[in-house]
Recover the amino acids of this structure.
């Protein structure tokens, strides 16, 4: 098990560790993790400051982590990986690296593909510039593939925890079902009976997740800006890990992010009452990630002290104020949708 004294900072529910996940994962107890929720550096053509592998070596590189994670997952545990798409170098044709990851993890490492998800980010800028903006021969790439891998064929999951608001038409149907449909067999072969008009508290979401990644004034961003600290350049929106944490875990379960970055996953877990572990190799990103767990009203002197203390390898303990989200995860009409 990871040495309890080696954390960089800890909160009521979690701990953040600085180090290479290839070295940290083996220290975990077997069958101790309920969910690994992560977004590794993508195999992009343009090199990023946080480090990313070439497409021809990416699958084997990521598979090293997948192999180590497998025995650490509980039998009903899951591994969720967010992967952005990419083009092949010098041509307007797509790389298949993210699909090769999928096949390798299932055929070689022994995972099951519980379900494939697609994250649609409507706020994503048009790219790649050469094919979309200049030559105008491709549309903008705004979909990420999100692979939900499981250790067994029946991982823990409860769709009731991620229901979405009913459509206006469905609300009218529930209020007066006789006016909107008649019981009969549809052309598809489905029989629509009385149960169709039952109010289950929300609609079942699809595997297309529409979540805008346009964070600009969050506490993490505001506090970093206030003392001139550069934020992580590739953060996923909190709604993405929140969806899978709600869907695949229960209160008190353990969630791990092996490429924690700014620790969005840890913050989501803290708010949802899950225990969490964050592994991040870059101490600068990890130091700034503590801002997610500090009061927004903290003064600049204290904030700078927290940040510098972590850079000097001094351990920090934070008493966080738990703010549990609605566990049924019904979102308001004007909030993020899961279409």
């Amino acid at each position: 098990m990871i040495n309890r004294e080696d954390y960089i900072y800890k909160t009521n529910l979690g701990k953040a560790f600085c180090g290479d996940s290839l070295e940290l994962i083996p220290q975990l107890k077997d069958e101790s993790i309920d969910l690994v929720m992560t977004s590794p550096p993508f195999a992009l053509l343009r090199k990023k400051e946080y480090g990313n592998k070439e497409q021809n070596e990416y699958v084997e590189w990521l598979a090293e982590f997948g192999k180590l994670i497998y025995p650490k997952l509980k039998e009903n545990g899951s591994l969720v990986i967010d992967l952005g798409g990419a083009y092949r170098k010098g041509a307007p044709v797509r790389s298949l690296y993210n699909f090769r990851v999928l096949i390798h993890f299932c055929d070689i490492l022994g995972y099951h593909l519980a379900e494939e998800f697609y994250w649609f980010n409507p706020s994503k800028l048009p790219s790649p510039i050469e094919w979309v903006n200049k030559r105008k021969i491709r549309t903008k790439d705004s979909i990420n593939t999100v692979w939900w891998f499981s250790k067994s064929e029946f991982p823990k999951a409860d769709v009731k925890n991620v229901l979405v608001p009913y459509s206006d038409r469905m609300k009218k149907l529930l209020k007066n079902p006789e006016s909107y449909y008649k019981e009969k067999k549809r052309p598809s072969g489905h029989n629509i009976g009385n149960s169709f008009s039952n109010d289950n508290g929300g609609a079942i979401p699809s595997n297309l997740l529409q979540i805008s990644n346009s964070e600009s004034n969050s506490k993490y961003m505001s506090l970093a800006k206030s003392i001139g600290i550069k934020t992580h350049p590739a953060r996923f929106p909190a709604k993405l890990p929140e969806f899978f944490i709600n869907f695949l875990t229960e209160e008190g379960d353990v969630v791990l992010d092996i490429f924690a970055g700014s620790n969005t996953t840890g913050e989501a877990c803290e708010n949802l009452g899950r225990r969490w572990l964050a592994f991040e190799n870059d101490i600068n990103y990890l130091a700034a990630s503590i801002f997610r767990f500090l009061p927004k009203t903290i003064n600049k002197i204290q904030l700078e002290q927290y940040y510098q203390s972590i850079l000097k390898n001094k351990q920090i303990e934070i008493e966080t104020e738990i703010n549990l989200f609605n566990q049924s995860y019904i979102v308001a009409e004007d909030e993020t949708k899961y279409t």
